[in-house]
Amino acid sequence: MAAGNLTRVSEFLLLGLSEEPELQPLLFGLFLSMYLVTVLGNLLIILAVSSDAFLHTPMYFFLCNLSLADICFTSTTVPKMLVNIQTQSKAIPYAGCITQMYFFILCAMLDNFLLTVMAYDRFVAICHPLHYTVIMNPRLCGLLVLGSWTISSLYSLLQCLMALRLSFCSDLEITHFFCELNQMTQLACSDTFLNNFVIYFVTVLLGGGSLAGILYSYSKIASSIQAIPSIQGKYKAFSTCASHLSVVSLFYGTCLGVYLSSASTHSSHSSAVASVMYTVVTPMLNPFIYSLRNRDIKGALKRVLRLVTYRSRTIESHT
Fold this sequence. Notes:
The protein has helices at residues 24-51, 58-87, 94-127, 132-135, 138-164, 181-186, 193-227, 231-265, 268-292, 295-318, and strands at 11-14, 91-93, 173-174. It is an all-alpha fold and 319 residues long.
């Protein structure tokens, strides 16, 4: 295929994590299991928070949105990968590739902003506890979530519009299990300077700004906890941040790990394998982190399970 306009590109080829036939059933079973656990775990978090009036607070409102974003995050990439393995096909239509890229960037950036908003919520709760209900009112919480969705959507749209201006040659193989923006840009025959500039500048601006906000919030939180006289008070204050801090460390740690591994090895395949950590593993672990380290969530989940069990037994008794 000669270099030309994007309209001549009908599809890309997703090479996946491995091209060895004997590994395909293993990959299918592994990713299907992780996807089901991710969806089920995050749905349980949403159900528990929605059904328990005690959890109708800003912290759990943001957690619900994070769980929804994680479901969308994995649903953007994993089902297509499973279909390709099952059908033994590597193709993804050009329009499907752009669509997948749009929702992937949107959900990744949404995770980034929601973790920042949750850090701000913890900062207000610990550093300004007397004014918490006034500051974190329903209107502000709604605006913070709406702003996160809006900025993420606009950023994703910008990246996709920049990708649409690229033209491609004969090499249309993406060494990944989804349409990853950097690799798609590297396949282009046209000039990619502006694309690369937008990718790195805006990503560093938004991602770095969010991380800086989280670090600033926790520096203030640490100072406030140090000022608490009792050991029990310090432990109680820290425990309200433990789950969020664990998720933040997991998300940014894996993202940084992927970046460093790809920069050091210069291998697209190694980058694809490493990216599984933040695209699949992190969304799967988030519900466990919040449920295992949070008595309120565990209590709500137990009540939900008891209610479901009671209703199922009631239906069985009437039939």
